[in-house]
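Researcher: Here's a chain I'd like modeled. Treat it as a single chain, no partners, no ligands.
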Amino acid sequence: MVRNAGTPTIAVSELTLATAKLAKGRQDCAPLPALFTLVISADFSALLLGDRLPENPADLCKAQITFEPEAIASFGHQLAAHLSRTSTLAKQLKQALAVLGTNNPLHQSEFTQELLGLLMQPPQTPMAQCSSDQSSFKTIEAALQPQVEQERLLNQVITQIRQSLELPVILETAVQQVRHFLVADRLVIYQCQRQTGVPEAGIVYEARVSASVGSILHVVESNTCLKPSTECHEKYRQGTAVAIADTEVSYADLPCLLELVRRHQIRAKLVVPIVLQDELWGLLIAHQCQPRVWTETEQAFLKHTAEHLAIAIQQASLYAQLQQQQQTLKQRVIERTQELYDTLQLAQSANQAKSEFLATMSHELRTPLTCVIGMSATLLRSTLGELTPKQRDYLKTIHSSGEHLLSLINDILDLSQVESGKAFLTISEFSLSRLAQQVMRAIEERAQSHQVQLILDLRLEASRSRFVADQRRVRQILLNLLSNAIKFTPDGGQVILRVWREGETAVLQVEDTGIGIPEHQRPLLFQKFQQLDTSYRRKYGGTGLGLALTKQLVELHRGWINVESSVGVGSTFTVHLPAQTRASSSAIAPPSSFREQPSEPLQGNIVLIQEHEESAMLICDILTAAGYQVVWMVEGITALKQIEILQPAAVITDTQLPSIDGDEVIRYLRSVTLLRDLRILALVSKATPADYVAYLEMGADDYLTKPIHPEQLLIKVNALMSLTVPPVMTLGRTSTP
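Model: Modeled as a single isolated chain. Structure tokens:
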């Protein structure tokens, strides 16, 4: 009878020789045993084989039971050969063999108990009986009981071994369970190979029946009788088991070993090797304090256990290696993270040092530039007398060179601030058309000197000209692109500026008829300090910062820039700038009311606090020529005392003074009640937006960036002096009560 082999309950197929007689006439099939019972299912399978003993055919059957899938499958195919292929039984057997698998260890005990009762039922056909005596089956049951128990215990041991990947747990479980089944006085594991934590070969695990049996755990013998010979080692490596029933007999000619086993109460022993990847890992040894004959079943059981231990040890070793690799990887990740953190700290320190260096150099470079640009501009205005044409040319050269040097310094500082994330946008609404026209007028003189024709192509309706962005930055973008186009356009060429809108995006396009850019050199266009060829550098000059800064400023607006170019034909740079929102402004813009004030001079007393004599002389000359009365003071503390006495209308103070910081000067002046109407103008080096915010919050009414341009100075001072009441500063705007 065959039940569904896929069901979770035990599925049984009882096939006897009578059934097999369906194919009795076939001579090409191997003979079947006189009695067999086959159980096949997805969770559990077993095979019982029985046959008459040749020496006594009328006596009891020789019974054998197996749970090995390979043996069951082999017998199943042998049985199928005896059956008709079209029979129902053959089809059922084929289906059962298809689901045959390894027994589920969790159900081994339950299944074996049920199976034992099932197998012991007398067969229903007399042809399958080896003996008609009912006592025969009781004898068979007695013979099978130890084997079934052995298989059950072996599966339990295997299950417990495989439930853990920790080697100590595996080995400890094995010695306890196996000793109990063998009813041995002592069971030990002898490890041959040296491993981490095992200083030398020896007994590493043991289980004893009671304390009366002495422990030999970690016992190290000094004599050489324990050391196995090469021949003995090779024998064990090949899987040979050694069963000794009485050591007094077996070791009679080996006094060294005999004395050793006596000392450790070993009268009988069973030794099986644990072979791991063709290497002898260790020995699984059972000890008995009295003589004992080890049965084949016991030897087979211990050997099977050793085989499964070898598999478990290998798995545990791989697991330990994996854990070690994970730990190593984790440690490397921690170390690498620390390295990255240290590198980041170094980079931040270097960036901080760079920022401090640039701030310092900004001040130190701009101070002499103030004199160069300011004094040359003052002389060109002819306020100190007439100049000869040659003197005027020299002054123009000095002034333009100073302006060019200032432009280079500004580019370096701007690029540094953008890359460090400290750049800011001063958002305002302006006319794109008017800005484009102003830029074209500013660049016109340079184009004429290069004999390049400038063309402005405005594709904007009047209602679409208003745009929200950082006007100064947009002007800088256009100036950089136009200057670059003029520089690389031969005499007689032309440069076209086109401006239009695409929805909320402004498009600025500069097209030239210049030398063009080879395709393989275009990736270098927007890199810092890069020019496309050494010959260009010699012919055209420049630092290579213009386009790099332009790209950064465009991206600061969340826009993008692309280029199309043909060698010998020209290049076209196109910039897309999304409209900004006023709320996105993160900077403090100079007060708009100051910029809108008339530039006509107004009378009033002004105190100037400035350490550098050249800068102070320039400021005094500019303001005096404009009709102001200026008192110059070098030292800050002295100036504070004099200001309370003089009661000036305004104070112009450098933020970097020798004896007292400019911010302390501003705070003190704002704290004096008598000076509440005083206007304060701070002279600052090019700094971060946070620095500007700090000076305004300290109480400064406005700030002027060095080097000082005469026109800008007059506009700022006139705006301050025209106010009847000091402005109330808020973030981003100025108002008067």
